[in-house]
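Revision sheet: structure tokens.
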Amino acid sequence: MELLPDEARATLPPLYSQEHAADPVAHLKFFTPDSSWTWFATEGSPEDDDFRFFGYVIGLEEEWGYFVLSELQSARGPWGLPIERDLYFKPGPMSEVLARYRRERGGQGFSPTLFSCSRWRMPRRPTASSRRPTHPPS
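Predicted:
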């Protein structure tokens, strides 16, 4: 299965385009058929010879973060199955997508605390003032 065909790539907004959205839209869903890992892509852009996504990842933890197409293509689940794109995924605001995801798995619905703070996203690129020295000052 091709994870990012041209028609799927065309639906994905570029990186940083939803940065200030209160409830960003998830456009693509990837998953491991032989484990519980899931990636919801909200944005993406070509980067060098790869494609970088930003979205919500459900694995050992749940967190916002970046992931790249080449890693999705090369990763395998515990039984050796490749990651797949959910062909029946319906894009929508993350609050609705996560509520649907949890309901389908018999869990609780969406928890509004996920978006209750202004830090729904991971920090983007470090600024000069936020960079820490790699060695202690002399």
